[in-house]
Design goal:
single chain; alpha/beta; five-stranded mixed β-sheet; 21% strand; globular
Length: 334
């Protein structure tokens, strides 16, 4: 094993490279992912090294991209497709929820569709309309899909490797404003087995910071914000535990429950709107499981129930350090 310091985007690139090298059935497909290397350069160099038959530039047609991936999976391939921006996924929504998610059940287990859909998501990059959405709850509501989102370069590498190896369809939400955040990633060297030393299960949450007073639960881009909030709260004498959920469907409720039984308080944080967001499901489940342990109601922090605003207003829209700390104060008031 070799440990490297990598930005999150480069960690994804290395995971794709390793998957292409280890399995000839892995194919990449998406808009501008080949010669350009993707708009965020996540797939940079892969077409050059593996050829146009393995790393394919597609037409600007998301429904066609996902539909083609389904056909390839039926023929035994493991396609990994990129939706260029979060807000572009909706032309493919029908293919994803009525075909990709349903085929395993429809065939009574005879057919599996090992398709990974990579979606850069969330705000914080000053983009125009349809480039900063957080649609994970729309897909988490659909049975048959796995929904994950890494927060660190290490998780980006290993979770993507695991997603590609999964026989079920996985939507892999990549927090685009964290693409340039660096972290240590331990990867197999040239002599190691491709799947060796995988650090944890794909859908297992991790405790990113230990604490005793209150639990912050988040995933993807908001884990960093919650860690910053925990550090700020520590200066006021509050010990905050941060749980990185990593997976939105399924959710590792057991890890969250264990944390809340210790702290007695929970604040769930995500970029997506609070209204009908994934935080609502977590709040409901933890209230059921931990009612007698809770010192305060489970609170939620997220975006507003409004269309994503122009870039000059996104800092007002996105949940930041102040809004997370305000929720900690509100929980403390009970």
């Amino acid at each position: 094993m070799v440990t490297k310091s990598l930005p999150l985007a480069k960690a994804i690139n290395e995971a794709l490279r390793a998957a292409l090298e280890s399995d000839p059935k892995v194919l990449l497909m998406g808009e501008d992912i080949g010669k350009l290397g993707g708009v965020f350069r996540v797939t940079d160099g892969l077409q050059k090294d593996f050829g146009e038959s393995r790393v394919m530039d597609s037409p600007l047609a998301e429904s066609g991209i996902v539909g083609t991936a389904i056909g390839l999976a039926l023929r035994g391939y493991r396609p990994v497709v990129e939706i260029q921006f979060d807000g572009f996924v909706f032309p493919a929504y029908d293919q994803i929820v009525t075909q990709l998610a349903k085929m395993h059940a429809r065939s009574q287990g005879k057919v599996r569709l090992p398709v990974v859909i990579r979606i850069p998501y969330g705000g914080g990059i000053g983009a125009v309309e349809h480039h900063s959405e957080s649609p994970e709850a729309l897909f988490a509501h659909v049975a048959g899909l796995k929904i994950v989102s890494p927060s660190t370069p290490s998780d980006a590498y290993w979770m993507l490797r695991q997603a590609i190896q999964s026989d079920d369809p996985v939507i892999f939400f990549e927090p685009k404003r964290r693409y340039w955040d660096k972290g240590e990633v331990t990867v197999p060297d040239s002599g190691s087995a491709a799947g060796s030393a995988v650090p944890g299960e794909l859908h297992k949450a991790r405790v990113a910071r230990e604490g005793t007073y209150l639990t912050l639960a988040a995933y993807g881009p908001m884990v960093k914000v919650c860690l910053q909030a925990a550090a700020a709260a520590e200066e006021e004498g509050r010990s905050i535990e941060v749980v990185d959920l990593r997976s939105v469907s399924p959710i590792d409720f057991d890890t969250v429950q264990a944390s809340v039984e210790k702290t007695g308080r929970l604040v769930v944080v995500h970029e997506a709107p609070v209204f009908f967001g994934s935080g609502a499901e977590i709040a409901a489940r933890i209230t059921e499981r931990c009612f007698h342990h809770l010192e305060a109601p489970v609170l939620r922090v997220g975006g507003y129930h409004a269309p994503y605003p122009p870039a000059r207003l996104e800092e007002e829209y996105l949940p930041g350090l102040d809004r997370v700390l305000d929720a900690v104060d509100r929980s403390s008031a009970y």
